């Protein structure tokens, strides 16, 4: 059996949102949306995060991609801690990552063809021109 490379490793990831109130908007508590989740994904593995509504699945994904800055923990992508990377460099790295949220209807535009839906991220991230994608049959 061959060793497969570790693609993603999440260690003790936490995301707490402050609860503010009063005239001065002071923090009087926290919502612990994600509180100490750990997992890893190896090359050629498929990974799904499944749970009931409100359990922190989307918040976990958003914290991994730093759409919500994590409160604590480590997010290692091919061994590099994404939480140590500056935001400009991270934007380039984000091209290699994708979240698929539980509601496909909010991420798919019914007015677009499947071809256009698949081409959109390639064009947005300048990974190919429309002509290149069609010639190489990327879509």
Topology summary:
Layout: E1 6-21, E2 26-42, H1 57-64, E3 72-77, E4 80-81, H2 87-93, H3 104-107, H4 114-124, H5 130-135
Antiparallel strand pairs: 1-2, 1-3, 3-4
Quick recap of the structure?
With 139 residues, the protein is of the alpha+beta class. The chain contains five helices and four strands; from the N terminus they run ββαββαααα.
Average pLDDT for all residues: 85
Number of strands: 4
CATH architecture of the largest domain: 3-Layer(aba) Sandwich
**N/C terminus separation:** 33 Å
Please tell me what the overall shape is: globular
CATH T-level fold name of the largest domain: Rossmann fold
Q: Which percent bin holds the helix content?
A: 25-40%
Strand order, largest beta sheet: 2-1-3-4
Q: With helices defined by DSSP (H or I, 4 residues minimum), what is the helix count?
A: 5
The percent range for strand residues is 25-35%
CATH class category label of the largest domain:
Alpha Beta
Biggest sheet, open or closed, and with what strands and sense? 4 strands, antiparallel
Oligomer: single chain
Characterise the protein shown here.
It is globular and about 60 Å long. The chain has two domains: 98 residues, P-loop containing nucleotide triphosphate hydrolases (Rossmann fold), CATH 3.40.50; 32 residues, no CATH class. The longest helix is centred in the C-terminal third of the chain and has 11 residues. The protein has 139 residues and is of the alpha+beta class. It contains five helices and four strands, in the order ββαββαααα. It has a four-stranded antiparallel β-sheet. 26% of the residues lie in helices and 29% in strands.
């Amino acid at each position: 059996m061959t060793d497969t490379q570790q693609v993603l490793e999440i260690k003790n990831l936490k995301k707490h949102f402050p609860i503010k109130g009063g005239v001065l908007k002071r923090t009087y508590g926290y919502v612990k949306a994600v509180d100490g989740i750990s997992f890893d994904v190896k090359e050629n593995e498929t990974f799904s995060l499944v749970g009931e509504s409100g359990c922190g699945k989307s918040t976990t994904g958003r914290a991994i991609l730093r759409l919500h800055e994590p409160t604590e923990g480590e997010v290692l992508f091919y061994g590099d801690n994404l939480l140590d990377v500056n935001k400009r460099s991270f934007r380039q790295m984000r091209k290699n990552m994708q979240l698929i949220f539980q509601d496909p209807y909010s991420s798919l535009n019914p007015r677009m063809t499947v071809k256009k839906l698949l081409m959109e991220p390639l064009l947005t991230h300048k990974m190919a021109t429309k002509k290149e994608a069609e010639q190489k049959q990327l879509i």
